[in-house]
Amino acid sequence: MPSNITSMVFFYTYVLLSEKDGEHYIGHTNNLRKRLEEHNAGKNFSTKPRRPLNLIYYEACLNEEDAKQREKYLKNTVGRRYLSKRLRTWKQRRSIFA
User: Fold this and answer.
1) What is the distance of C-alpha 84 from the center of its chain?
2) DSSP bridge pairs for 54
3) Could you tell me if 5 and 35 are in contact, meaning their C-beta atoms sit under 8 angstroms apart?
4) Is the pLDDT of residue 96 over 80?
5) Read out DSSP for 5-53?
6) Residue 60: CA atoms inside 13 Å, Cβ hemisphere, count?
7) Most buried one in 20, 40, 47, 73, CB count within 10 A?
8) Rounded distance, CA 75 to CA 28, Å?
């Protein structure tokens, strides 16, 4: 039976955490799995020396411009504060098991 629903393409804004230095990397992509693999394979100049990296947060947008704007926001001071508050519980749980 043919479907009238077209597949939706999402654009993701994501935050990676470096296990090496504990710092975050923020970016955007339309293929989150592939992009994470590229980061951990050393194909990104900015993150190559900071591997391994773990995905700790992402947001899905319906268009690329929104994902770019969200990336820009998360990289500024107010956005970093937002992330810190948003990930507070995760950080607390993580420190228990560290």
Assistant:
1) 14
2) 17
3) no
4) no
5) PPPP--EEEEEEEETTT--EEEEEES-HHHHHHHHHTT-STTTGGG-SE
6) 6
7) 47
8) 12
Q: For 3-18, how does the pLDDT look when each residue is reduced to its tens digit (9 = 90+)? A: 566 778 999 999 999 9
pLDDT at 2: 55
**By the 8 A CB rule, do 95 and 53 touch?**
no
Nearest 5°: the CA angle 78, 91, 93 is 155
Name residue, tokens 């992330």. Answer: 83
Q: Report how far Cα 72 is from the mean position of its chain's Cα atoms.
A: 12
Q: At what angle do helices 77-86 and 88-97 cross, to 10 degrees?
A: 60
Kind and range of the H or E run holding 69: helix 64-75
The answer to whether the CB of 73 falls within 8 A of the CB of 67 is no
Distance CA 22, CA 72 (A): 21
What is the distance between the alpha carbons of residues 50 and 22, in angstroms, rounded to a whole number?
Answer: 9
pTM given for the model: 0.90
